[in-house]
Design brief:
Structural class: alpha/beta
CATH topology: TIM Barrel
Number of helices: 13
Distance between the termini: 28 Å
CATH class: Alpha Beta
CATH architecture: Alpha-Beta Barrel
Number of domains: 1
Length: 323
């Protein structure tokens, strides 16, 4: 069983449509702040965001809210957590200095509490030259003492190995890699290769969407309607084909007096990765914290692995993920 803890993801979607459409009230802020504080106090030790979480006038809003919350957070507790954000390699952010302005703006929104900067996705499939230049630019900021840690996201094993070695030649370590991983992601050799590279080089393996956009939390006898068109279509496709998997998860959850969400999180942890779970309210924070109190047995992990391999529906893969 992995001893890795759990991180929290604070994307725009994490606080629902009120923020997306701009109707955020003071009550929402209070609830979010309590959720955030409860999660950290409970032992969730990484906060993940991105400068692209929020569009239009809400661009960077996730980072801004986190920065506001951290201002009220005791400094002694701040030292125990990692505040990570991702900078988007948009087509107009080019050259070695392409992320400099974005970094400065994210750092301002986070009130200087940024621990780790991650390249949000790989540009290898459409602009391979851009990826290495931007990463070298982050390396320059690291050498100037402006960045403490560097991470990658949506980068396959071949590029991970290549970029890790490139940065190692400069004496700079890549601290983490963030990939989509859950019981609903299709098993692949790439998964194992990334896991091995991370283990060999002490790279933190972070797993986003560990709950499969909430599908893995739904009891096998339930089929709820979703509020958005895209999620509704996704649920219609995946839910009927995951009943057996969710039955197994439900049975394991009952054994530990836990939730299916906890089973999904602990499956990710059993694969040596740290899940990043999106939370919207204190009860979800409490549920994620409870997953730290127990572990899957080897037999349970293997059964879940088997049902995952036989699952007839999977989450869509990120199109930007490199080889």
């Amino acid at each position: 069983m992995s001893k890795k803890k759990i991180g929290i993801g604070f994307g725009t979607w994490a606080w629902g449509n009120k923020l997306v459409w701009g109707y955020k009230s003071e009550t929402d802020d209070i609830l979010l702040k309590k959720t955030f504080f409860d999660a950290i106090d409970g032992g969730l030790d990484l906060v993940d965001s991105a400068d692209s979480y929020g569009t239009g006038s809400l661009f960077g809003q996730s980072e801004k809210l986190i920065g506001d919350f951290l201002e009220e957070f005791p400094k002694r507790k701040l030292k125990k957590i990692t505040i990570a954000t991702k900078l988007a390699p948009f087509p107009w952010r080019i050259g070695r200095n392409g992320l400099n302005k974005a970094f400065q703006e994210s750092n301002r929104r986070l009130k200087g509490n940024m621990t780790r900067v991650q390249l949000h996705w790989s540009t290898f499939r459409y602009a391979p030259w851009q990826e290495e230049q931007l990463l070298n630019g982050l390396g320059d900021l690291y050498e100037k003492g402006l960045i403490k840690e560097i991470g990658l996201s949506n980068t396959g094993p071949k590029r991970l190995h290549f970029l890790y070695q490139k940065m190692k030649e400069r004496g700079i370590k890549i601290n983490s890699i963030q990939m989509q991983l859950s019981l609903l992601t299709k098993p692949s050799l790439e998964d194992e290769n990334i896991k091995n590279i991370c283990a060999e080089n002490k790279i933190e393996y972070l797993a986003y969407s560990p709950l499969g956009l909430g599908i893995l939390t739904i009891p096998p006898n339930k089929s709820p309607k979703n509020t958005t068109f895209l999620r509704q279509k996704l649920f219609q496709r995946i839910l009927p084909k995951t009943i057996e998997l969710r039955k197994l998860m439900n049975n394991i959850a009952k054994k530990y007096s836990a939730s299916q969400a906890q089973v999904a999180l602990n499956w990710v942890r059993s694969h040596g990765a740290k899940p990043i779970v999106g939370i919207r309210n204190p009860s979800q924070a409490k549920d994620a914290i409870s997953a730290l109190n127990w572990s899957l047995t080897k037999s349970e992990k293997e059964k879940l692995d088997f049902f995952r391999s036989k699952c007839l529906a999977n989450m869509p893969q990120n199109p930007f993920t490199s080889p």
